[in-house]
Every structure is written in C-alpha cells, then in structure tokens.
Amino acid sequence: MRQGQNGGGRPEAYAIMAGMIALETAKALRAAGLRWEPAEFDMFAVPDRDLEETPFVINDLPAHMGRLQGIPVMTFDGSAEWALDYIAAGEVVWLPSEEQLRWQLMARLAADPAYRLSLAATGAGCRLTTTAHGATREYEAAEAGEAYAAALLALLRAEQA
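RE: above sequence
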C-alpha cells in the first residue's frame, strides 16, 4: 500500500468520505432546517457542478499534493487556484461529521434532562437508540453518522410539523 492512500488504493479523501453522511442525507437535513455556521475544518460539497463526489474542507491555508521534477511535494498557497474562485455558502451543502451530528442531536434532546443516547453495533452496521420525553426511538444505519443524521432529521421534521 502506498502512503497517503487507504487499503483500497483510493486517495485519502475517499477514506474520509467513507465515514461521512451521504450528500442526499445532508441535503435532507438542510431542507429540514439544520442551520450551519461555516467554521474551519468543516466539510462541504458543491452540488450541481460535477463536484458532488469531492469533499471540500474549510481551511485558512490549503495544502496541495504535487510533483516537482518527479518528486512528490506538498505545495501551499493562500487561495485556491482553479476555475471556481468563490462560491456562496448557500450554494454548498454542509457535510457534518458524526461528532457534529451527535452534538446537534444532544442539543435538541437536552430539554429533557433525562435524555439518553445509545449506539450499538449490529450485523448490518449500528443502531442508535434515543430516549427523551418518555419516548424511545431506534435508528439503524450502516454507519454511526447516518444513524445520528436519521435521528436528527426526525427531530427537525417534528419541529417543522
């Protein structure tokens, strides 16, 4: 295995994406009212521009991989040098991490001081159990981030109803 790649031989960006929620899930969360204040190291996708499969990370100083006289090098610059110089925050879709989803969920459940979250492994992935306001709900998904997203999406939709 080459350095900088995961076991499947794909670039690390794809390994990072493997633990992220699906773009469609992120779009559903946004449509249900999840608000995002962009912050350093947040990840996002640019839909409808053939960039859906590329995760972007907010960072003050981007680093790029390149080659100089055939030698792998890291280059640094203060601005991205590509055809899309900027894009409005409202045009991108936040790809919250598992931790960010968990915190969003906990913040909404905290109105019940006895709330509980429990994540357990299953044969197909994981099961998230939430208990709040006397109700217990379960959310199953292949990955924990998707389970947290499903629970958060259910709460957001209930708030809209």
